Amino acid sequence: MMELRQLITFRTVASTLNFTRAAEVLNYVPSNVTMQMKALEDELGVRLFDRLGKQLVLTTEGKRFLTHIQDVLNKLDEARDVVHDNENLTGTLTISANEVICAYRLPAVFQRFRSQHPGVRLIFGH
């Protein structure tokens, strides 16, 4: 059975295209990310990622799945917002910065922001 954390992990791996960076962003060990993605691929019966040399890329199925997973996670965020309906900040904040800076220099800032503003969804773009 698919788990919410697997979907969040999938979205993070898809945005970073790197298991180690995704693990750092999510505060997991890399092997945990690998196991979650393997379990998700096994359940779906398709490969979501391919390795081209040292580069990780989404497969066609992975791209299709990502589109739907983003919709599902957005809806869950909206549902949480409705349930909590308070005066906290809500919405989506897209951050476009060098991946190295996002992965290595800013995680503490992102964690602090997330704890202070849980209703804001952070998206990392290229």
How would you describe this structure to a colleague?
The chain is α+β, with helices and mostly antiparallel strands. It has a single domain (4-125), classed as Winged helix-like DNA-binding domain superfamily/Winged helix DNA-binding domain (Arc Repressor Mutant, subunit A). The chain has helices spanning 4-16, 19-26, 30-44, 60-84, 99-105, 107-116, and strands at residues 49-52, 55-58, 91-96, 120-125. Strands 1-2 form a two-stranded antiparallel ribbon. It has a two-stranded parallel sheet with strand order 3-4. A hairpin with a 2-residue loop joins β1 (49-52) and β2 (55-58). α1 (4-16) crosses α2, α1 (4-16) packs across α3 and α2 crosses α3 (30-44). The longest helix has 25 residues, at 60-84.
Give the arrangement of secondary structure elements.
Elements: H1 4-16, H2 19-26, H3 30-44, E1 49-52, E2 55-58, H4 60-84, E3 91-96, H5 99-105, H6 107-116, E4 120-125
Parallel strand pairs: 3-4
Antiparallel strand pairs: 1-2
Helix pairs in contact: 1-2, 1-3, 1-4, 2-3
- Estimate the mean pLDDT confidence: 86
* Strand elements, count: 4
Molecular shape: globular
CATH architecture group name: Orthogonal Bundle
Helical segment tally?
6
CATH topology name: Arc Repressor Mutant, subunit A
How would you summarize what this structure contains?
By secondary structure, the chain is of the alpha+beta class. The chain has helices spanning 4-16, 19-26, 30-44, 60-84, 99-105, 107-116; strands spanning 49-52, 55-58, 91-96, 120-125. The longest helix is centred in the middle third of the chain and has 25 residues, at 60-84.
